[in-house]
Fold:
Amino acid sequence: MTLPALVTPIFSCCLERGAVEGCQISWSCRSLRGDVIRAERVWRCERRQHSELGGVAPPGGEQQYPHLYQSHIPTNPLQKALLAVGSGIAALRDPYRHGETPASPFSSLTPNAHVSPPPPPWPVCRADMVAVLGETTGQLALRRLRDEMRRDPEGCSILQERPRIRLSTLDPCALGSLPEGSLGREYLRFLQRNKVTPDSRAEVKFVDDEELAYVMLRYREVHDLMHTLLDMPTNMLGEVAVKWFEAAQTGLPMCILGAALGPLRLSARRLQLLAGTLAPWALRSGRGARCVLTVFYEQRWAQSLAELREELGIEPPPPLAI
Structure:
């Protein structure tokens, strides 16, 4: 039996018990948790056997849903629907950043400092549920984004080279030495100010196409760059504004859901600021701007942030008096 074969009954039972919480499903009894651990062990064993057999599906294996990339978990339409419903319920409880932000290696950076990745795991509980929701509902939007990247020379290079934005691929000292107002310098400042790290993004698991899985991963890894481009903070108001921009840009259902329901968590004052200024600006910029996934940010660290906004067609951010 494979992991996907157990996902449906276990996840359904958890939903019935109302036990969905964060990146892990907070099981309401030890037996459910044990079932999941045992299922994952069996699944990993079958994956290893599958590899040793030279890619031939093991007896009783899932030829219809092969493993397409390292983190891929094959699921059928019913399982995806159950995952979408469960993750949607969990994500709605807290659709944005977790209240306790993990310590960032960039927060105390000095020019000659050596940065080492902090020990895993990152507390990205809520983010995992949002990630599952995005993967199980975003197939059509991901195809459209992939096609836009293919039509753009810079986007096509991204699909071919598959760059990653991780601690292992960033040079904080080099970013810190860039001119004031440059993309790289402002991105580093964002990471330091908000004490966040690019390594907090979850790997893609439930997208049944290797290239589309990378598109989803790229979307996640440039999310903090969207905050930098839009000059939005990581509080609830800033996250909702970024979601309005991303909803107009990507058409991903999870972004639309976040943009629609996020305002319910705002105070009256911030809701007025969102409705009167931020949401119209984010929608105009999102609809009028070039697809942000077609930008090879790693080759543009030295570019002026204002110049990049103008090139992409993003309106200057409105001032936030909050």
Observations:
- Confidence is low (pLDDT under 50) at residues 1-39, 49-63, 96-103, 108-125.
- The radius of gyration is 20 Å.
